[in-house]
Amino acid sequence: MPVIAAALVTKAGRILLSRQFLDVSRIRIEGLLSAFPKLVGTAGARQATYIDSGTVRYVYQHAEQMYLVLVTTKGGNIMEDLSTLRLIGRLLPEYCPNGVDEEAVRQRCFPIMFAMDEVVTNSGQREATSIDQVLAALEMHSTEEERWKEEEARKKEEARRLAKEKAKELKAKKMDFDSASPVAAAAASARRWKAVAQRATRARTARRR
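Now predict its structure.
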């Protein structure tokens, strides 16, 4: 049966990170995770265990000062759920090498969630994968992302270059127009005076007649 969500929750019940794999409302997930620490009780002393509550099962382990929790359906395979939990637990130090604390989780929340996505599918099923395969896949995604960023940066730089060239071209055209304008104005004035002179000449000629 599927994993509903994976999360890191403080012992006080504060949700630091939650990755949802099934179409369950956010309010429902937050309610389940907030209630979890109250259910731990004496079972929390063990390294990894589970608690059945209502229609769900919490499969969890300590992650230093917090809990790593899987929320699953009660009909799930507990051994498979524990295997999924342990794999995610082994991935945490890869992204929080100085310790899994609140600050480290906040800073590395996205890589941790991407790692969870490599372990559990969007339908909540466990991927047949290992820690090395997960790290290799995430490294590949990281490389692809860097390439995409470089390509986007190149496009932006090219757009800036073209805009700068266009601005120079427009400025040059404006300067040409401004420099040509006095000549054009003088020519127009000369034509007007010539027309006035021609009319005056015709008027004098007509009077003599």
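The CA atoms of residues 196 and 202 lie 10 Å apart.
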